[in-house]
Amino acid sequence: MGQLILLIIAVVVLLFVVTTLAKSIRIIPQAHTGLVERLGRYKGSLGAGPHLVVPFIDKVRYVIDMREQVVSFPPQNVITEDNLGVAIDTVIYFQVTDPVAATYEIGNYIDAVHQLTSTAVRNIVGGMDLEETLTGRDRINAGLSAVLDEATGRWGIKAKRVEIKSIEPPVSIRDAMEKQMRADRDKRALILTAEGERQSAILTAEGNKQSAILNAEGERESQILRAQADREAAILRAQGEGQAIQTVFQAIHDGQPDQSLLAYQYLQMMPKIAEGDANKVWIVPSEIGKALEGLGSTMNSLQGIPQQVDGPRKRVDMGPSEPVEPAHDAELSKTDEAVRAAIAEASNAASPTHAAPVDSTDPAIDPGEVPPAR
Questions:
Q1: pLDDT tens for residues 278-289?
Q2: Which of 128, 144, 209, 213 could covalently link to 132 via disulfide, CB atoms 3.0 to 4.6 Å apart?
Q3: CA separation (Å) from 236 to 226, 232, 233, 283, 305?
């Protein structure tokens, strides 16, 4: 029995020792401060780490967080100067600088900051109209910071920053603002469209102008080149016609035509007189032989055309011409002899005295001259 009592006493003593040790050792986290009270009165502050206190006499009543804290308050309705209600959300960034003052100077510093913020927001926004409220966030933040710094300094709290999270105007005001913004955007879109069309028209006009200038220059150069080509073609055509006339004239001089040849040419032209569309009737006289004889006698007696052509034949100087291929010289000589023989035969047939034929092969006669008729 006595041993049981001793065992119970030993257990109780052990529990007392363990409880005493537990209450005498306190550990404070990093960035926190512990406030120690002795018999209900503030004794001191404990920093981060383990500490020994007097058990059952000293007590760590509060552990204050010394870090910067963020508190977001719910939206509150505020009346602006132009009697429009808006809902404003605020965010407070603060830090406890004096844990003793934050604990013993005010009961709940977070609630105190909330109420102070609501009062300050109503005061600041009440002196601003809706437009200034929506665009004056910096002004509201600066006013709140000044009010909180002045009021929370004695509470051991430092308001680092105050931010307006959102400003919500009434639904009708939001609809009107949306319509206004839509109208402004439509106006800017129309302005930009008009400017784009103007720039497009300007660029198009400049392009048309450059195109017209280039087309005009191209047309001018084309006309110049065409005129030059026409001029050169006309010159070449005139030169060709001149050479052709000279060739015909030279051939006439070389052939020495007389009245018989002219009469023969006239007889060749008579069928062509009847080829016209206006010639409906062609009368051939019965005395066609006598008419032809009379025509020959008439042609023989034309004034200015000699019956016989005397004197040497001389070629007209036509200037430089293209050289004749040597292979064609013999053929040209035969052709000239045949022409001379035909002209001589026609002359003898038309002349009443019948001039003696000329032997073109006689070596005593110069090919460039023809002896007079006998």
A1: 655 655 555 455
A2: 128
A3: 15, 6, 5, 45, 35
Question: Residue 139: how many CA atoms within 13 Å on its side-chain side?
Answer: 13
- CB of 309 within 8 A of CB of 256? yes
**How big is the CA angle at 144 (ends 139 and 150), to the nearest 5 degrees?**
130
Joined tokens for residue 186 = 């439509």
Whole-angstrom distance, CA of residue 109 vs CA of residue 152: 9
Q: Is pTM beyond 0.70 here?
A: no
pLDDT digits (tens, 9 = 90+) for 242-292: 888 888 878 777 776 666 666 666 677 667 666 666 655 655 555 455 545
Residues 351 and 265 in one domain: yes
Q: What distance in Å separates the CA atoms of residue 268 and residue 334, rounded to the nearest whole number?
A: 26
**How many folded domains does the chain comprise?**
4
| Residue 78 counted as domain residue | yes
35: helix, strand or coil: strand
How sure is the predictor about 202, in pLDDT bands with cuts at 50, 70 and 90?
very high
Q: Is residue 367 part of a domain?
A: no
Window from 11-15, 94-98, 183-187 with minimum mean pLDDT: 11-15
The most distant pair of C-alpha atoms in the chain lies apart, rounded to whole Å, by: 206
β-pairing verdict for 32-38 and 58-65: antiparallel
Domain of 94: which CATH number? 3.30.479.30
Instruction: Answer yes or no: do 79 and 139 share one domain.
Output: yes
